[in-house]
Amino acid sequence: xxxxxxxxxxxxxxxxxxxxxxxxxxxxxxxxxxxxxxxxxxxxxxxxxxxxxxxxxxxxxxxxx
Amino acid sequence: xxxxxxxxxxxxxxxxxxxxxxxxxxxxxxxxxxxxxxxxxxxxxxxxxxxxxxxxxxxxxxxxxxxxxxxxxxxxxxxxxxxxxxxxxxxxxxxxxxxxxxxxxxxxxxxxxxxxxxxxxxxxxxxxxxxxxxxxxxxxxxxxxxxxxxxxxxxxxxxxxxxxxxxxxxxxxxxxxxxxxxxxxxxxxxxxxxxxxxxxxxxxxxxxxxxxxxxxxxxxxxxxxxxxxxxxxxxxxxxxxxxxxxxxxxxxxxxxxxxxxxxxxxxxxxxxxxxxxxxxxxxxxxxxxxxxxxxxxxxxxxxxxxxxxxxxxxxxxxxxxxxxxxxxxxxxxxxxxxxxxxxxxxxxxxxxxxxxxx
Lengths: 65, 358
Fold this sequence. Notes:
- The complex is a heterodimer.
- Residues about 55-65 of chain A have low confidence and may be disordered.
- Chain A is mostly helical.
- Chain A starts with a helix and ends in a 13-residue tail after the last strand.
- Chain A is built from 2 helices and 1 strand.
- The radius of gyration of chain B is 22 Å and the shape is globular.
- The two termini of chain B are about 35 Å apart.
- Chains A and B meet through helix 2 and strand 1 of A and helix 1, strand 1, helix 5, helix 8 and helix 9 of B.
């Protein structure tokens, strides 16, 4: 049983568990599909190691040497 | 979500299918090949770098075993790996993916070999450990020994597979809906509210909002990575343990990006503290390593000093305070104080750098 299924099973009767899970998953997928077309400047996040290299000629910013 | 992040996440999902389709004895070799293929399509530079380092590290260890100068080999290859990491952002014209993470994984293997905690794994085992697609973009910085133990114990568990899928799905929602969409709107709102404030206070609020945004994005993508790995049947080391529940800065650093903190503790703090018999110097060196890992810049050198000051101040406060707040208020005030200190670094340090002659 997944964490969400365990949580929902506390409050829902057994028959409603699978439709409720399906509804939550569909909602999350829908939200992802709707909002993921909003690209964010990932360079602001040093932990996401996915960035375009700057090249030696770039003006840089105050955080550079 | 950036297109590259989406491709890496979907590629990781395809990797899950591959792992269960390919015969077990070749499964991790198959995933390694798939990882190189996807990475080469997105960032040929990163693919060459990752495979090159993955091959060269065991070769360097073999050389050290043959000539008997483990220390010299470790020093030379560590310098080469770090030089590649610190100069990589100046290699123009390409995406850089995962270097900050796989460099530390290479160093972990090398340093464990140097201290005889690990025998040379050889090229094939080492590449299987390094080339795991879901762990490229945000880590965690997992360890070879734990990874191989998990691989040996791996078997199909439907409950684990579904739990992993749920974790990956909600992790993606955390990164995209909270870390991207919601935080963007909140930051825009804060910018409006603080528009007339003095610049310092405005920058402080923006910095605090950035910490929250970074948490949702980083923890969200970490959950995607760990969820995909659980779908493959592996429990990889966690990166977060509710960091915003931390009641002081010391506790925060044991809960935030835990695999990096442990790496710095094991390979920098303990080494320097043992060599100098000074925990303070060990802390300074560990924080400096952590800061420079984010980015090799003057800002992150100062950031390290800021964090050392915060940790030392926290220790002094812990000792000096004979009393403590009741658990209710401290559960709120502690995290607020931690966020306040962390976010104060940027407005202060940028102004310090502006005062410094260029």
